[in-house]
Amino acid sequence: MWVVVFFAFLVLNFGALALGGLFTGQGVTSEWYTNLNQAPWTPPGWVFGAAWTTIMLCFTFYMTALWKTTVAKKKVILLFILQWCLNVIWNPVFFYNRWVAVGLIVITGLTFLTGFFLIGFRRELRWKVVFVLPYFLWLLIATSLNTYIFLYN
Q: Among 8, 68, 105, 135, whose Cα sits 20 to 30 Å from the Cα of 150?
């Protein structure tokens, strides 16, 4: 049964990336984005793909472990759906519509929600919360990048 749960979360997580990517267009290589005043700590474009692949694999392990452990499955699914929606909509908000301020609101909400996944289920998952840590850390960086663009453009 856990294999089915793992693959369901794997498909959903990478599906979120794919859907978000549809609205990203050229994304970090677009003329609009490259001409923005960006934070000095902005990583090169290739890092984004490598980071998100690693993050979604780790988050899949996290969600599978949480699903196996928790009795609050309805709560977990609702939080996962909210996380999934915020993850998907950030790309079209930021890259497609170029709504930097709205993107900042979305990514801040996603960061807080991921922080809740990290802290809110630590007693149930114990050491397995490390699987959500890459997601949380990356979102802290991404939020800082979005904030910088908001403030300096």
A: 135
Closest CA relative to residue 33, chosen from 52, 14, 48: 48
Distance CA 19, CA 96 (A): 13
Structural contact between residues 56 and 17, judged by C-beta atoms closer than 8 angstroms: yes
- Which domains are present in the chain? 2-152 (1.20.1260.100)
Q: What angle do CA 57, 59, 65 make, to 5 degrees?
A: 110
For the stretch 55-108, pLDDT in tens is: 999 999 999 999 999 999 999 999 999 999 999 999 999 998 999 999 999 999
CB atoms closer than 10 angstroms to residue 1: 7
Q: Long-range CB contacts (< 8 A, 24+ apart) of 64-70?
A: 64/2, 64/5, 64/6, 64/9, 65/125, 65/128, 65/131, 66/117, 66/121, 66/124, 66/125, 66/128, 67/2, 67/5, 67/9, 68/2, 68/5, 69/121, 69/124, 69/125, 70/121, 70/124
